[in-house]
Amino acid sequence: METENAVNYKFMGRSFTDLSINDDSSAFSDCNSDRSGEFSTASSQSRRLFLACTNSDNSDEFIRQLVSDLGSCSIDEQKNAALELRLLAKNKPENRIKIAKAGAIKPLISLITSTDPNLQENGVTAILNLSLCDENKELIASSGAIKPLVRALRTGTSTANENAACALLRLSQVEENKVAIGRSGAIPLLVNLLKNGGIRGKKDASTALYSLCTVKENKIKAVEAGIMKPLVELMADFGSNMVDKSAFVLSVLVSVPEAKTALVDEGGIPVLVEIIEVGSQRQKEIAAAILLQICEDSVVYRTKVAREGAIPPLVALSQSGTNRAKQKVRLVSHRWLTWHGYFWEKKKVAESPTPVAEISPSILVN
């Protein structure tokens, strides 16, 4: 498996590490477990479940009974058991270990392949909630969960789709699972969820793709599945609340030539330049780093970027951004102008009789 590491750039004797932006914690929070409020409090299991959640002395016995019920011949008993295990795993982290040790994982995985939508949804979400415990991830994957989760991503309800994406994300946090998930057919389905899902589905899909696409072969699969068009569209829509997430996914993709070509073909350069002009500080920083990667080995792409008017907003960002943004953008600007025979420093720009904003793109791309 080829996992791509951070790239070290050197310029003027200084080292700049990992331009792809690492502080993604606020852009990508882990997928949540169940959405609250989606179950009726008047269900016949409410009192039984409440007692099980609050009475730790009885919880082990109760969990064992629920695991046994998963193998019942009655679909209603299976549904009730899966639902209750789903909620137990959601509400009490310690229950995730207890449920796994009681042998629930394999029978829950078998429910994911059910043709009953409700049973499938409960099975998927119970597995998601169990995967929130790091100790369970390897056991879930080794028990054969990946292919059934991919099937749920293809055939399930909207909630099953979203929660399957989240579960695959959790499993992808074990490095060895990333290739297996990619080869199972998950990437095109996640790209489809990114294109056509609701806002929660788009967020879940982008988070999963960000994790999976640290592996080179998954990057190529994502590009072949048409990921670039929805990424560019979401980055261009500042009202989507997806600009950061889409840009972060793009930042891990553009290390492969196929992604650079697809990005340019889908009109991504003008969108990135617009982000540098009007986006938030973090968005500007991500866009600048992406542009550097696009232009690193291509005179043609450098020409396109310069003609879109990227130099003035890059210079402005290098003077007004955060310290880290200034470092990254100054590297972009230094490299950009030296690519075209110019040596740029803040002092020289300030003293130049020609404002940077008035430098002709035709000069920069000679």
TrEMBL record:
Keywords in alphabetical order: Repeat, Transferase, Ubl conjugation pathway
Cross-referenced PROSITE patterns: ARM_REPEAT
UniProt-listed Gene3D superfamilies: Leucine-rich Repeat Variant
Keyword Repeat: yes
Signal peptide segment: none
Single GO MF annotation: ubiquitin protein ligase activity
Protein name as catalogued: RING-type E3 ubiquitin transferase
Organism: Gossypium barbadense
